[in-house]
Amino acid sequence: MSERQRGLGRGLSALLGEAAAETGAPKEAGAARAGASETPIELLRRNPDQPRKIFTEAEVDELAASIREKGVLQPILVRPAPGAPGEYQIVAGERRWRAAQKAGLRSVPVLVRELDDLEVLEIGIVENVQRADLNAVEEALAYKALMDRFGRTQDGVAQVVGKSRSHVANTLRLLALPEAVREHVLAGRLSAGHARAIATAPDPAALAERVIAGGLSVRQAEALSRETASRPKRDAPRTGRAPETKSADTYALEQDLADVLGLDVGLADRGGYGELTIRYTTLEQLDDLCRRLMRAAPSP
To answer: Which positions are annotated as active-site residues?
Structure first.
């Protein structure tokens, strides 16, 4: 693993600590300011690819109040702004920048680093994920950007952000939800657990409205999702057979397999025989599944 990747794995605090070491300052809270320079706040520009999109007024106001009293304790990490000489693009610390403006500061401490687009995105994801600042959908979109724009695999993303591959895969599955459900998650009306619970329901958007209106827990949402999934479809052809229903054990096994594989899994058991269906949405997911199955196959 490269030095840069190890630094990202340690998180933003490592970058700030290294800055302190470069100047001979002790690695204590706030010591990284020794490597920072005060920069006019109007020279800083937000990064349009910042993984975090939602900053609530309440949290910015709270931080602004702290800044008025104690100042900006941790420098804002920036890089020279592409195409704008003399200006800087924020890599990590947009909330501090917003709060500093609200607090009326004219300048803020910054650490300037030469970083490419991939490094900027990775650092932004690591900072927010480690601090649990990202909404689950924002996190999924950030992972997808790493994969689509920079060719990262799910394993590669997991390594960079310090999460398990199954966590990355399960987070990416949220992007398959209808837009209305994703909006509920972004707005905080639904948790990621709720979203995953209703993901396999026939109509996740309608189910999301019921979950929100009823203030249901994740377990209640799972039960409601199973109930709606087991109902016969109105337009289904009449075959003379009773509609199939799944036992709680079957649903639990489906979920266990889905969690391990990071893919949607369907299990239809008919008295000891049936079908196991694994659904993938990208060739990369299929390749990953094939590799795992081949590794698990016994040697001849």
So the answer is: 94
CATH architecture of 3-133: Alpha-Beta Complex (3.90)
Cβ–Cβ under 8 Å, residues 160 and 122: yes
Nearest one of 239, 232, 180, 174 to 202, comparing CA atoms: 232
Kindly report, residue by residue over 149-177, the tens digit of the pLDDT: 888 888 888 888 888 888 888 888 888 88
For the chain, the C-alpha Rg in angstroms (whole number) is 24
Domains of the chain, residue spans: 3-133, 179-230, 255-295
pLDDT digits (tens, 9 = 90+) for 8-44: 444 455 544 443 333 333 343 344 455 788 999 999 9
d(Cα 208, Cα 204) in Å, to the nearest integer? Answer: 6
In whole angstroms, what is the distance from residue 208 CA to residue 190 CA? Answer: 8
Contact 23, 17 (CB under 8 A): no
